[in-house]
Amino acid sequence: xxxxxxxxxxVPTTGRRPILLRRALAxxxxxxxxxxxxxxxxxxxxxxxxxxxxxxxxxxxxxxxxRESRGAGAARNHGARVARTHHLCFxxxxxxxxxxxxxxxxxxxxxxxxxxxxxxxxNRDGVRPEKVPPETLDAGVFLVANPGLRGSNLVVTxxxxxxxxxxxxxxxxxxxxxxxxxxxxxxxxxxxxxLTPLVEYHAHDGERLSCRGAQAIPPGIEGFLxxxxxxxxxxxxxxxxxxxxxxxxxxxxxxxxxxxxxNQALAVGTIAAHFPGLLHAAExxxxxxxxxxxxxxxxxxxFIDRLCxxxxxxxxxxxxxxxxxxxxxxxxxxxxxxxxxSLQHALERSRWRASAGGPLAELLFVRNDRDPEVDDEHGATxxxxxxxxIVVAEVHVPRSSRPLSLCEARAFAFRAAxxxxxxxxxxxxxxxxxxxxxxxxxxxxxERGFRRIAGGALxxxxxxxxxxxxxxxxxxxxxxxxxxxxxxxxxxxRRQLFDLTSTQAPGVQTSETGRRLATWLRRRDPYYDLxxxxxxxxxxxxxxxxxxxxxxxxxxxxxxxxxxxxxVTRPALPSLDEMPPTAWGHLxxxxxxxxxxxxxxxxxxxxxxxxxxxxxxxxxxxxxTTWCIxxxxxxxxxxxxxxxxxxxxxxxxxxxxxxxxxxxxxxDALGVGLYETLGTLGRAEQEATKRGARRRLAAVxxxxxxxxxxxxxxxxxxxxxxxxxxxxxxxxxxxALAGVRLDEIELSDAQNQEQSSPTAAGTSAxxxxxxLVQPDEQTLT
Length: 781
Fold this sequence. Notes:
By secondary structure, the chain is an alpha/beta fold. Strands 1, 2, 3, 4, 5, 6, 7, 8 and 9 form a 9-stranded mixed sheet that branches. The chain has a 9-stranded mixed sheet with strand order 19-23-17-20-13-10-11-12-26, sandwiched between helices. A 3-stranded mixed sheet has the order 14-24-18. Helix 10 packs parallel to helix 12, helix 11 (about 270-290) runs antiparallel to helix 12 and helix 21 (about 655-680) packs across helix 22.
C-alpha cells in the first residue's frame, strides 16, 4: 500500500527563524504518510527566496514568495493557489507535528472536508494540553474565542478552503477565528476531529501573533470586530472583551478604539449593523468609568450621544413599531410631571426615533390617587399635556376603591391594557413602570459620592434588548433600578447604620473610594435587606445625599427619611456583578420582579397572575414577584436585564411615620411569606404563608434591635438629638411589630378586589387635544 497522500503541506514563513523552520519541516518529513507537495511560502518579495532555500537546502520542498509582505494569511492563500492536491495541510514555521499526525488525520481515508486535531502547548515551564477541537462547528463559539483551530492543526479540502474564501489578508491577527467563522458558513459536510494532541504549539522568545504585547493584536481585534462584531450579541462581545484583556491586556472598549470603530462604520455605511455592539460597549465602559473619574464618565456619555445621533441619521435599522408604557399613580406628588419631563429629556438627548413620524410613545396612566390634591395635580398635568411625541391617556380606578394595593392596581392596569388592545410583542412592547421612575441613572462618583446621569441611552437599550428577544423565546424583561432600593427601608437599616456610625466620614479619597466603588459595582445588591454582612470592602463612608442634586447632607433629613422608610446610604446602583461585566445584564432567569418590567408577549399580560394575602386591612407587597412566579410556572420565560432607571421614591403625605412603617413592614412580611410559598409549593397556601411571614417579621425585629444597639454604642459620630429621636422611633416600631400575631390571613385574588372594570378617559397630546375615549365613565368589558 502506497504511503503517498493527495495532500499539500503549506508552511508560511518570514525567513527570519531558520532553525525553527527546519524543525517544522523535519516533523513533516518524519510522518509515516508522505504528502504530494511541501510548499514553503515566504511572506516577502521574490528576492528573499534564495536565502530561505539556502536555509533548508537538501530538504524536498518548493520555496515560493508572495512578492510582498502581507502576513501569514496571504502566505497561506498563495500556497493554496499554487497547490494542485485534493487536501491542504497547514503548519506554522515555529510549530511541530508529532510523527503520527497525518496517519491519524487520514486513518479513515480521504473522505472528509475538514479535520482539526488537538494540540499541546510547549513553553519554558513544560508541556500541557492546550485545546481539543470542538465537537460541532458553531459560529457562536468562534465569535468569542478560538475553540481549537490554528494554522498548524488544520487539514481542509481545496474546494472547501476556497468556498470559505481562504484566510483573511486584511487581518494582522485573529485569522484563525475569522477563518473558522467562514468555514462554518461554508457548511462542511464531513468534519473529522482527532482528540489525541499530535500538534505541538511552541511558545518562544520570538514574537508570535498570539503573544501578549504582539503589535498585531490591537489592530487584529479591531478588524475582527469590524468584520464580525455585528453578529455578536452583547454577552458574546462582553466575553470577547474579557478574553482580550485577560490574554493580551488589550481593551477593545478603550475610548480611542471605540472612536475608530464608529468612524469605520460611518465610512463604510454599516452603522446600523454595528450600533448595538458599540452602544453596549460604550454603556458598560461608562459604568466602569464611574469608579475613576467624572470627566471620563462625561466623555463616555458624549461618545454615546454622538453614536446615537449617527444611528438616528442613518435610519436603516429595524425599529420598534410602538412603545407603550403603563404607569400607576398612587398619591406621589409631582410624579406624573416628573416622569413625563424625564422622558422628554431622554428623547431630546438620545434623539431616539427623532426622524419617525407621529407619536414616539404612548403612556397609559392608571389613576389610583386617593389624596385629592395629588389627584387634581396629576389630572391637570395630563389635561394640559401638549408634546406631540408622547401620547397620554388615563384609566381611572373608581374613587370608592382607591387606593388599590400595588398588586391590585397592577392587575387592574394589565386588564386595562388588554382592553385597549395592547398586545405585547418584541416589536411593540408594553412597559410596566412605576410612577417614581425616571429616565436617568444614579451612579457612584469619586468627586461627589453619587450623581445622576443619562446612563447612556436607555430608550435605545430597551429597543435593542426587546428586538433581540424576538428570536430567544423571552416573554418579559425585568429591568431593575438605581436609586431607592426596591425593599422597605427597615430591612436596610442595620446596614445603613453600620455606614453611618462606624467612623467619621473622611473627605473623598480618590484611590480608596474608587477601589471600594469598584467592589460595590461587582457585588449584586450590596444594599440588600436584612444583611448581617459587615465586610469592610462594602463599607462606603460617603456623606452624600444622593436623592438631592446638590448632594448636601443634613442629619435631620437623614433621620426623617429613615423614619419614613426611605434609604439614605447604599442606594441601588447599576450592577456589573456577573462575569464578564455587561451593562445590559446576562438575561438570566428572573426570580423576582418589580416596578420596571417590559412585556414582550401576550402570555405574560396576565392580570390573574397577581396574587396577594390580607391581614385585616393590610394587603401584601411583592405582587410583581407573585406574577413572575406564576407566569414562569405556566411556561413563560422571564429574564433579568439591566435597565437601571432612577427610582426616585419620595414619602407620601398624611400617614404618621411610625404607622406607615409598621404597615409597610407587615405588608412586606406577608408578601415574602407568599412568594416563598409559591416558589416552594407551587401554589398559595395559608399556613405556609403565615410561617414565612412570621419568620420575616422576626428577622425584621431582630434587625431593629441590632440597629438600636448600634446607635447606642458610645462614641459613634451620629449627632445626639437626631440619634435620640431615631432610637425612640425604632423602639416604638419594634414594639408594635412584636405585637403582630398574623393569626388570621386571607388569600385573595388581586384582580377580583375591584369588581368594576377599568373606566377610561384619554387625552391625545397635540393639536386640539382630542379625546381618545370619551370621558363618560364608559365601562371597558
